[in-house]
## 1
Amino acid sequence: MTELYFNLNDVILILSIGVSLLLSVFQSVFNTKNTYSRVLLAAFFLSIAIADTGIMLIWNEHLPISHLLNIIVPYFYTFATLIKGPLLVYYVKSITQDKFSPSVGGLVHFLPSLVIVGLLYAFNIDINLFRLDQVGIEHTTYFTTDMIWWAIKIIPLTYFCYALTCVYFYQRDVVSDNSEVNEAAIIWLYAITIAFVAANGWAVMLGVLANVFGLPYGVTENYLNFILLISLFFYSVSQSQQLTLARSSKPKQASTTGSLQHIIDGINIGIEQKKLYLNQSINIEQFSDAIDLSARDVSFAINREFGTNFFEFINSHRVEEVKRYLSNSKYNHMSILDISLESGFNSKSSFQRFFKRLTGMSPSEFRSSRAE
């Protein structure tokens, strides 16, 4: 009778390994302006391929394992699993920050993986010991190996949570500095990072359940990771290139280039005389340059005097411009979409959302009410 080497879980792992390798190679031919994001994403996919290969070699006892593999697999598996977190964090930063470049100080995030690998070496932990299923394992070695398994689960979760906070601060900063942002791309990025947090939180919970109740549901982690793998690739192709980049450095307070009233007067000139809000892609730096003020001062004044951020401030004036068009019968020949574009909006969804929120009615309802 033929012995079965692979079960369904192994098939999922094999698919994940193959897809990860293909996606890693694919990054080298993917045409993007951001070289760092391609390299980081390729490294992330490669780390998944190595980690999944390690999982299969460690837990599939039917596979023939050479003496060399028995020794080195825990090292490769552990290192690949632990660097996934920092790689995702840096990938998120590379696609959201203007002029991003990895720093030497950032290498500290790879220190935990090196420490854990060092422990594997110090205690001479091979695949057999790594499984923790041998009788008579020395107590210190057992404890260390168990702690390594928990580190493998908890450290990536910590970094995925960090990646999620990076998305939050990115969304906050980019909205405060730009009049138009690609909300769909931001929502996707939120969804991806939240999914990684949830999947690894699930893995930690399964580890707890396995230790306390002996429940054998750990394989579901592999299925979730396979889905995330495909989702991340889809996002990198379809959405990440459309993200509005945040500035690398953020001002904390106003400078001393002028009084608050002087800054407010300049902002009003930019709105009332120059009508800078009609520029569909204007950001706070372009706005500030046009009125000879610093972006720091403008951001501070808008927040202090108008109680809002640049994104809301500019779009509220665009809504007023739309209302002017819709209230005048001589523009009845223009479609609402054309009017929104003339008023500075370049996204139909954001226009409709802002207009409904600020007026309490849809653009078509507003036009009808003015015609009565």
Note: The two ends are 85 Å apart (CA to CA).
## 2
Amino acid sequence: MAETKKIRTTVDIYGQQYVIVGTESSSHIRLVASMVDDKMREIGSKNPSLDVSKLAVLTALNAMNDLVKLKDHVEKLESELNRVKE
């Protein structure tokens, strides 16, 4: 069984450094971390009294909400495509 090489990438999110270990490219990890940082800063600017842990949870909720909406959209498009193919 071939082992997938793990890549270590250091990123900065909301002023904190994190070492992310995974199989995605460093550029992919940096992009995702940048998006998380941007969303945290956006939410934080609208709610300056939030502590970092609540800000992180709100950021995660926003990200999962976007993911659910995208999955629903993909399902609708796949359904429409299947209908057109028939």
Note: The chain has a mean pLDDT of 95.
## 3
Amino acid sequence: MKENRKSNKAINYQELLRPFNISIEDYTETVAVVRQLACALLQLTDKEVQEQAEKDENFGTQLYARIFARTSYIELEHELQATDFSSNLAMTGEKYPSLAADVITLLASRCKLRLTKSQYEKILRYYYLRLAVNQHLNLSRIKKAQDIVTSDIFDSFMLAGRIKEALNSSAAGKLLDIGTGAGIPGIILAILLPELTCDLLDTVRKKLAFLDFVCRDLQLPCNLLWQRVEDYAHSQARHSYNFVVARAVSSLPTLLEYSLPLVKIGSFCFCLKTTNEPELSAAKLRNLLGALSLPPAVYSLPPAAQANFPRQIMAYRQVASVASTYPRLHNLPRTRMLEIAQEPS
């Protein structure tokens, strides 16, 4: 990342972040959305939140207001009254019923993750850093506050839950996020799974420069890699990762040719995809890339998500070394995909 820092000296992130203007309407909607997410992740019901607030008058201030109303990265268009925050703290979700119900039900029941206060605050901090910087730099096509929560963060949590299951049968070690972009899912995984060493790989310098700033701000020990994945797979990193993950990088045959040579024998590759991906030939997958396909985890995003269609976490276990010819260079994995898709019967 030394080259990235040098080439991005002109980017002053502190200047980009101040002021971060947000309307009262967007603010209150975002607080409601993220608060419901927080309740799900902390496995707290609205009643428990209110009980906590009654026991400790600083509870709400510590857990929510410090992130939203008092952060130096936000400047409201109008002065926020105390009643605005307190009404959101006591909100039962009636204003956003379907989103609240889906987020709480799906995340709390499926991910089986319980956050510490520090983890929760880091996720919200990342959320606002990204919102602010994306106003000036094109980090991701997902720009709306609500979509970051209901799509990007949601996907990351579902993947974290799947990795957590795999950790029960595999020693903690190294994780690689291919094509990390604005840090999804890699940054969220680094926060949720601190037992893993997370490497984030991308070819776009400005995105890695932003992630360098985020990692220093959140004190995340991630390694940032500016390299093409096909070149990286032919380095000493070959077959060295316990987990390789990717989200929306390329077609599945291409993505597996990139990813599987980096997976340690006996370890896992996870690809976040939609449910319309073609099935792969188990024999061809095993013979060409040395991997076995595992049952996918299928889920749906909350109704409020911009892209509301079924998702699946495609899972593969590496059981043999990949031939040194893979991945092919000169962009061949994209232009001439491996014929490992299942032939129609």
Note: Confidence is low (pLDDT under 50) at residues 1-8, 58-106.
